[in-house]
Design a protein that fits this description.
The chain is built from seven helices and 32 strands. By secondary structure, it is of the alpha+beta class. The strands form eight sheets. Strands 9-8-13-12-11-10 form a six-stranded mixed beta sheet, with no helix packed on it. Strands 14, 15, 16, 17 and 18 form a five-stranded antiparallel beta sheet that branches. The protein has a five-stranded mixed beta sheet with strand order 23-27-26-25-24, with no helix packed on it.
Amino acid sequence: MASPGSIAYPDRFYAAAAYAGFGAASSASASLSRFQNDVALLLYALHQQATAGPCNVPKPRAWSPVEQSKWTSWHGLGSMPTAEAMRLFVKILEEEDPGWYSRVPEFNPQPVVDIEMHKPKEEANILPASTNGTSSVPEPKTISENGSSVETQDKVVILEGLSTVSAHEEWTALSVSGQRPKPRYEHGATILQDKMYIFGGNHNGRYLSDLQVLDLKSLTWSKVDAKLQEGMSDSAKTAQVSPCAGHSLISCGNKFFSVAGHTKDPSDSITVKEFDPHTCTWSIVRTYGKPPVSRGGQSVTLVGTTLVVFGGEDAKRGLLNDLHILDLETMTWDDVDAIGIPPAPRSDHAAACHADRYLLIFGGGSHATCFNDLHVLDLQTMEWSRPKQQGLIPSPRAGHAGATVGENWYIVGGGNNKSGVSETLVLNMSTLAWSVVSTVEGRVPLASEGMTLLYSNYSGEDYLISFGGYNGRYSNEVYAFKLSVKLDPQSSTKDQPISDTTSRVLEPEVEISQDGKIREIAVDNADLKNRNDEANEQLLAALKAEKEELEATLNREGLQTVQLKEEITEAEARNTELTKELQAVRGQLAAEQSRCFKLEVDVAELRQKLQSLDALEREVELLRRQKAASEQAALDAKQKQGSGGVWGWLVGTPPDDSDS
């Protein structure tokens, strides 16, 4: 029989399609069962592309995940030419089954209709039958890679945990088991070793103290019976953890910290607790330095081996905008006095770190308003700045949650004192450009305040996980958002031939078998070498542009420095002149002070003379009175003598001769 290489296209493709099970619907399931699910899905997509052209049919409904997977696989090929789809179909079949052509009795070179890809319920546990009717272990497949042979074994991967989320860039409510935690908001959350821990929070105005954990592998909730260890010795007593809300959970190593938070009986300063998952115990961390004042609603950001604490609301409802850093190696607090204009006092904001250097603060609220401003703190120079935001500027909000994935900062939820925010935003922290990733409708937990948002890399996929919140109702729902790297399929397939090293082009999807088991269809990604080169070139161009911008900035700074030096010289000259004038004025002032002293002496002498004149005037007045009295006495005596002479004459007394 002739080799497959001797058959020209498209007959070679139709022969391969007939062998793979696309020739007769009755035997399609049996034929495709020889291949792994990812290979079967890829062969289906390539066959559709080769026979029907690019996918232009509507996407199936969500309740048909198998059809969704097939549609996504086909749609992912974009506008791949028919000839390339045929060649890639045959190439993949030859990799999976090198001797396929020798087992093809005949083939129909005409296109066939679509087939179903469901497998029998017991297919996952039944081995292929041998020719004598007994079960046999599947034979290893030989796949040629650059001339070498690699032995592989058929394998069915059972999807579990977060891998059950099939849709990309959409929020999906997770189906969890176990007893759910009490609905809450303003709780703390963190992920450690594929487990999401939830601690504390607020429910109907009451603070909570329970520690709940969701296993991301089994999506099962369980409660941790955690105790607070009092003291540092092995024989230390244990007690219950105080209920709190508005705190922050931060993972570090194989433990996590609970920082700050509102409590019923607040302390004077921030309390730092450490939880050890191995012993299931909390312990109070002893810190050094001057700790910040007690607060809640702050942001706590892990930067290297330090925790950066900003803002919040103290126990007396006073808003804060102070900055503190806790060194996790020495457990020492540092009160930072940054330069520049800091953000206004606020709480319930979001914070993130970019490039281990820049602290970003977004949104938050005061007692009267909400913010949508973006502030950046350079942790090397400790200088605040408020850069210009690009793209669609978000609306004011507080109580939102954020999580970073690479250089992207995702923001979910929050409110503006009127309603919850429904969109999921992403900020590129390099360009400071905002964009909307997704929008939810209705009164759903994702449009809540006080929720938490975490990032998890599970089985090679990136996920955002949200929990809790309050939007008029308290929530205990868990939502997942599967992130995807958006590739342009045309860039890797169009206008270039399919080489022997071409990879398979499809995105991961999920298929559900008839018995409800979820299986992974792990299809390889496209060849990303060209994309990496383009990304490197773009990065290099960006670095060159940044270098040129920095050089221009340095030149401007140099000119400003020269101008400042000239201004300093002029200021020093003016200062010298002013110093001379000041000395002259001081001399004049000393002369005036001397004259004033002399005048004061003269005034004192005049006052003494004036007092002497007053005494003389009093003496003169006294003499005048005495003179007047003497004159009055003499006059009275005269009058008396004159009256005595008349009476004497009348009585016959002779007048005194001396008086005559």
